[in-house]
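Subject: Predicted fold for fructose-bisphosphate aldolase, 338 residues

User T.R. writes:
Posting the sequence so we have a shared reference for the thread.
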Amino acid sequence: MTDLVATARSFFEPGKGILAADESVATATTRLASYGIETGPEMRRAFRNLFCDAEGIEAYLSGVIFFSETLLEKGDDHVRFPKSLAVRGIHPGIKVDLGKEPFPESPKEMITKGLIDLSERLVSYKKAGAVFTKWRAVIRIEGDKLPSAQALHENAKRLASYAREAQMAGMVPIVEPEVLLEGTHSRKKSRAVIEETMQTLFSMLAEHSVDRASLILKTSMALSGDRTGKKDTPEEVAEDTLAALMASVPQQIAGVVFLSGGQSPDQATDNLAAITKRAQEFGAPWPLTFSYARALQEEALALWRGKEENVPAAREAFLARLQKLSAVLGQSVERMLA
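User M.O. replies:
I've generated the structure tokens; pasting them so everyone works from the same file.
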């Protein structure tokens, strides 16, 4: 029987984080097109292969989240991605939600779908090699109107239902209630919404008897909205992010991973460094790491541009960013041991 608690804790090995490579077909197509890369199934496979088959990633990654399409695909080594990662000690995971739809009671807000056949899909994902799962909800801020209490409650209920199903299937759940960067809100508003979101979520997780010890939380950082023109300092981000989490997240969870959510690679790295430093000063009870997508991929994709001859340079940039993030986490461990 799978020891879910041990598996969940293993994501937080010193200096390691999670690559979010779970873009849907539509998102991956848009992402590649933005770098002038042609789209299609083979190019999406090559996109995943660029990162997953890079030599040495096992020193910096504890897990990779896939989209369902990628779970069954093979790298250039003719080995399915989940197997090639597992033999290197990297957990393969799977995004299990089926995207967003408008919330009938508040059409400007979105709720996440995918519960109807979830239990059956989890069985097939586990058979394909996935050992952990992820479900994302999006929380929009708009003045004092959004998020609505109804949308927060419905997204939290679905996150809790999913997490319970994943644990029953013998898989670690990552719950991701992402407070979106888009908007004109202040950093303080972001902090307040993160806190309210987490309080709602963990109340619902308790109602659904979800085991906290084998649960991983993926969260946004507290940031000023992208239309404010305000650039928060890493110290400001760290202060408000940790304050929100300390006030609302129970200590029993396996750990917290941060999403980059539209930040640049340097911004996401600098903010993570400040957060891990502040976490030690706060006495945060859970381990912290990253679960980044664009902040890990951006520099590599700009070099790769879909051309085979650019793969070595692109992978070098990817590894360099991983090394920077690992160093940030390593410094945190050194401070804790000092």
